[in-house]
Amino acid sequence: MPAKFRGGGVGEYFTPDGVIAVETSTCAHCGRITEIPNRKRMADVVDFCRKCMRLICADCAGKDCHPIEKRVEEEEARYRLFKDMGLT
After folding, report:
1. What do you get for the CA distance between the two ends of the chain, in Å?
2. For 59-70, b where at least 16 C-beta lie within 10 A, e where not — what string?
3. Which backbone phi and psi does 25 adopt, to 5 degrees?
4. 2, part of any domain
5. Helix/strand/coil (H, E, C) string of 7-75?
6. Backbone φ and ψ of 5, nearest 5°
7. One digit per residue, pLDDT tens: the chain, 88 residues?
């Protein structure tokens, strides 16, 4: 099993020959799980957001910082507003 690094996890593939473990990272902006081939190539597949100080995927790199937790909170607030207005 690979060593864990801060901000990541371990993904497992189950094959007929056994279990293959790979390091993974979850994007703080979109929630996408990215497989890390090795630590030397980590910068090719993930980036670091300087605003929220978290790992992000290559697709979110260079875009505005909008963490997924914040989006969920906004959706919940919108739902509560609509519910209070009697629209749901």
Report:
1. 48
2. ebeeeeebbeee
3. -140, 140
4. no
5. CEEEEEEEECCEEEEEEEEECCCCCCEEEECCHHHHHHHEEEECCCCEEEECCCCCCCCCCHHHHHHHH
6. -120, 160
7. 444 445 578 889 999 999 998 899 999 999 999 999 888 888 888 999 999 999 999 999 999 999 999 999 999 999 999 999 998 7
Q: What are the structure tokens assigned to 53, written together?
A: 């100080």
> Considering the domain boundaries, does residue 3 fall inside one?
no
Domain with 53 in it: 8-84
The two three-digit tokens of residue 28, written as one number: 């703080």
pLDDT for 43 equals: 86
Computed on alpha carbons and rounded to an integer, the radius of gyration of the chain in Å comes to 17
> Model pTM?
0.72
Q: What's the structural domain count of the chain?
A: 1
